[in-house]
């Protein structure tokens, strides 16, 4: 799944769209601060 997301992010970058990817499996215990920082920065969250 992560490969698919990274691939999509690269395609979006080619179109001038910036994205931020956080893999929650690497945030054990769940790092809510990192997720909230990303949401505040981008104003978006897709889970």
TrEMBL record:
<dbReference type="Pfam" id="PF02780">
    <property type="entry name" value="Transketolase_C"/>
</dbReference>
<dbReference type="InterPro" id="IPR009014">
    <property type="entry name" value="Transketo_C/PFOR_II"/>
</dbReference>
<feature type="domain" description="Transketolase C-terminal">
    <location>
        <begin position="1"/>
        <end position="46"/>
    </location>
</feature>
<protein>
    <recommendedName>
        <fullName>Transketolase C-terminal domain-containing protein</fullName>
    </recommendedName>
</protein>
<keyword id="KW-0786">Thiamine pyrophosphate</keyword>
<dbReference type="GO" id="GO:0016491">
    <property type="term" value="F:oxidoreductase activity"/>
</dbReference>
<keyword id="KW-0560">Oxidoreductase</keyword>
<dbReference type="InterPro" id="IPR033248">
    <property type="entry name" value="Transketolase_C"/>
</dbReference>
């Amino acid at each position: 799944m992560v490969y698919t997301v990274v691939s999509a992010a690269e395609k979006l970058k080619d179109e001038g769209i910036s994205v931020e990817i956080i893999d929650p499996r690497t945030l054990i215990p769940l790092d809510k601060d990192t997720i909230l920082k990303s949401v505040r920065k981008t104003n978006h969250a897709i889970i």
